[in-house]
Amino acid sequence: MLRRWRGTAAGLCCTLLLAAGCSAGAAAATGRYTGQSVEVVGSWTGAEQANFERVLRAFGDQTGARVRYTSGGSDLSVLVSSRLGSGNPPDVAMIPQPGVLAQYAASGAAKPVTGAVAAAVRANFSPQWQQLGTVGGQLYGVYFKAANKSVIWYRADAFAAAGVGPPATLDELTEVSQTLVDSGTPAMTVPGADGWPLTDWFENVYLQLAGPQRYDQLAAHELPWTDPTVVEALRTMGRYWAAPQFLQGGPKVALQTTFTRSVADVFGARPTSAMLYEADFVTTEIAKLGVYRVGSGARHFAWPSLAGTGHMVVAGGDAAVAFTDRPVTMDLMAYLASPEAAAIMAGRGGFLSVNRNLDTAVYPDATTRELAETLLHAETLRFDLSDMTPRSFGGGNGASMWRLLQAYLAAPASDPAVVAARLEDAAAKAYGAA
User: Fold this and answer.
1) How confident is the model over 93-102, as pLDDT tens digits?
2) CATH code at 254?
3) How many C-beta atoms lie closer than 10 Å to residue 269's C-beta?
4) pLDDT computed for residue 307 by the predictor
5) Pairing mode, if any, of strands 151-155 and 275-277?
6) pLDDT averaged over the chain?
7) Could you give the CA distance from residue 390 to residue 217 in angstroms, rounded to a whole number?
8) Nearest residue to 89 via CA among 325, 317, 319
9) 212: which of 162, 303, 382, 432 lies 20 to 30 Å off by Cα?
10) Are 236 and 408 within 8 A, CB to CB?
11) 308 and 335 inside one domain
């Protein structure tokens, strides 16, 4: 059972000694921060915001602090930068891009974390997730939320009608897609209007084709985007996108399809295709539609591998980053690194944690539990490549990688070497300005 977190001293005790329990006598003074306010900004809205606010209320109840959440929506970086520029930084921001985190750290705006926060992170997160929050050897980020981005969702009834099962390899994905089309159902809905899902497509194909070492080199721009492995990954994507009826409505309709619309196209009352690629958070949208049940009518399989490559996972996540170093801020950061804080959101669904001391039994269903455990135990795991890059290239609305992949989706039969050259030109400019 997870015990209550009670401030710096007791919170650190519970974090480090979770397996053995934490003595009730170790409780720090409840109400230590009575009368103090602390603000967290993030991109979450709707149910996700409401669930996170429960986490913040729990911290407030145990410390007396007034915790306020401000949503920046899809323009979170704009909000944070504006607040920094006006001399009114938020205390904590939930940053989804390690590349942006690195820029804030380099400028001195983000505050390094030490002491109880660093100890909690070391106790509860694997070295890989610790490293993702580290810049120049100093810890800045606490990965409160994670995402499994190597998942394809499908309608069980469409697969049954076509007589196919989940594919294990990219070649099998093509075969299954063709069989679905032959049975009268477009294979895949692609939400090209939003841009970011296309970067996720590329990252999964590239990790499988080029391997983790080149993936890391490309993320750091130590490998040019004109490398033959990039061209081949683009060619693989283009071949699938250009195949007749593989994409619901073809590339033109895909470019007009938002992420929310794409979920309805597969799992709504009048489904128009059989599959959708995107991360675990698809389950939240499926549940809102109320037509197909996750785990039965709506199922998933891992992103198909190349023969012999094994299971590789692309992950995303939101890191808590401090922009003030007040004691209340740092105690909040330590709390967000605790299993208790993660359990509040995990129990309500639509959330994955990579806190290795969180009991996965708290997840509300077997599907979410499986996806979370995949993140914890993947043979090969890499963070979302576009989020590792400078924001102007891959990390926000209008970013170059988003726009160039949308242009490629519009004409998937075009020369992938030309697309790669355009990506390299944009990357060189973005990394040079970073």
Assistant:
1) 999 999 999 9
2) 3.40.190.10
3) 9
4) 67
5) antiparallel
6) 91
7) 14
8) 325
9) 432
10) no
11) no
Looking at this protein, which amino acid is placed at residue 53?
E
pLDDT for 434 beyond 80: no
pLDDT score for 30 = 67
Q: What residues contact 354, with CB distance under 8 A and at least 6 apart?
A: 125, 126, 129, 143, 146, 315, 317, 375, 376
Residue 225: half-sphere exposure toward Cβ, Cα within 13 Å: 28
Per-residue pLDDT, 391: 86
Q: CA 337, 196, 224, 216: dihedral to nearest 10 degrees?
A: 30
Residues 97-149 pLDDT 10s: 999 999 999 999 999 999 999 999 999 999 999 999 999 999 999 999 999 99
Structural domain that includes position 96 = 7-147+321-367
DSSP 247: B
Asked whether residue 39 falls in the same domain as residue 107, the answer is yes
Q: Sign of torsion, CA 55 375 393 204?
A: negative
Please tell me whether residues 210 and 309 are part of one structural domain. Answer: yes
- Can you tell me the distance from the alpha carbon of 388 to that of 100, in angstroms, rounded to the nearest whole number? 8
| Domain-embedded: residue 372 | no
**DSSP codes of every residue in 283-339:** HHHHHHHTSS-BTTTEEEEEPPBPTT---EEEEEEEEEEES---HHHHHHHHHHTSH
Task: Looking at the structure, tell me whether residues 126 and 261 fall in a common domain.
Answer: no
Please give the structure tokens belonging to residue 409: 């989706």
Indicate whether 374 belongs to any domain: no
Residue found by looking up tokens 């007034």 in the block: 66
Both 13 and 25 in a single domain? yes
| Residue 345 near residue 58 (C-beta atoms within 8 A) | no
pLDDT in tens, 307-362: 667 789 999 999 999 999 999 999 999 999 999 999 999 999 999 999 999 999 99
